[in-house]
Design a protein that fits this description.
By secondary structure, the chain is α+β, with helices and mostly antiparallel strands. It has one domain: DD-peptidase/beta-lactamase superfamily (Beta-lactamase, 3-Layer(aba) Sandwich). Helices cover 50% and strands 17% of the residues. The protein contains eleven helices and ten strands. The chain has a six-stranded antiparallel β-sheet with strand order 1-3-2-10-9-8, with helices on both faces. It is globular.
Length: 310
């Protein structure tokens, strides 16, 4: 009888303990989710801490103050980021993590259109060639061609313009169909870049340094063959930019953006009396609604740096 009572007492104690544990877990599911997210963000921040932002050394109080602001923006951003500020006069003046390869999203279109223009310069294609928009090229997402009727004829000039102005996915599909991946891959290899595409995958990986390089290359060729003028004007007129909202009133601003869920990249060329380029890439494990504020703040800081070293 005593043994039965002991077993009964033990059973009651175990039941109470289990109920307390379950109650504790059920009362704080948000805490568990938050902790998991914080751990992921913390892990990324720890990795970024190993590679601190760098900038040129100047005895300039305003410049150094702007650099400290940028340092804080990067430190406070809990996910992977790349930031590059490039002055045409002084080169890279501020840089962080600029060699890490990230999924290109639509920024690859800038590098591919560069290749297309080199082919047109060689006489392999002309801007007045026309191509039919068919179902084979269809893609949703960014762009204007998707709203046209199948069977619409487009000149090569129009396709290039749409691809740059609206980051047109269908325009890009048509360009790869016309020019192919092999010549692009060869040119990128000859130029010392690792970007490669295929008919199975039109997208690749790149970094802030690559985006700066190709924006600069197009800028330097903007007054050459008419194809380059088409590309440059399309980049100038593109409005799909966060940083343009912050500093676009300061001068002509060429822009190429790329975005998919959890990723936002942007490279801009601001043509002022002291021209400069900003390239920013972000990769999150969550869709971060704070990214617009981040990009606007980076643009403002970068402009403060340029103003300080004029």
């Amino acid at each position: 009888m005593k043994i039965k009572k002991r077993f009964l007492a033990l059973a009651i104690m175990l039941s109470v303990a289990l109920l307390c544990a379950c109650s504790s877990e059920q009362s704080s599911p948000k805490n568990r989710t938050t902790t998991k997210t914080e751990k992921a963000a913390s892990s990324v921040k720890e990795k970024q801490k190993k590679k601190e932002p760098e900038h040129i050394k100047l005895d300039n109080q305003d410049f150094n103050k702007a650099c400290k602001k940028m340092d804080k923006l990067i430190a406070d951003y809990p996910f992977t980021s790349e930031v590059l500020v490039y002055s045409l006069d002084k080169g890279n003046i501020y840089y962080h993590n600029i060699d890490e390869l990230m999924y290109s999203a639509s920024t690859v279109k800038l590098t591919y259109v560069y290749y297309c223009c080199t082919e047109i310069e060689k006489g392999n294609h002309t801007l007045d060639e026309t191509y039919e928009y068919t179902e084979n090229y269809y893609s949703d997402g960014s762009g204007a061609i998707q709203y046209m009727d199948f069977g619409t004829m487009l000149s090569l000039q129009e396709i290039i313009n749409y691809t740059m102005l609206y980051s047109d996915n269908i325009g890009y599909n048509m360009l790869v169909s016309i020019f192919g991946p092999d010549g692009y891959n060869q040119l990128m290899s000859e130029m010392g870049y690792g970007m490669q595409i295929s008919y199975q995958n039109y997208y690749t990986q790149l970094n802030a340094q690559v985006l700066k390089d190709f924006m600069l290359k197009v800028y330097e060729k903007r007054n050459d063959d008419f194809c380059w003028q088409v590309v440059w004007n399309a980049l100038i007129w593109s409005t799909d930019s966060i940083m343009k909202k912050e500093i676009g009133n300061l001068g002509d601003m060429a822009v190429k953006c790329g975005t998919v869920e959890g990723i936002y990249h942007e490279v801009v060329f601001l043509d002022t009396d002291s021209p400069y380029i900003i390239a920013v890439l972000t990769k999150t494990n969550l869709v971060d609604e704070g990214d617009e504020e981040l990009f606007r703040s980076i643009a403002k800081c970068a402009n403060e740096m340029i103003e300080a070293i004029k």
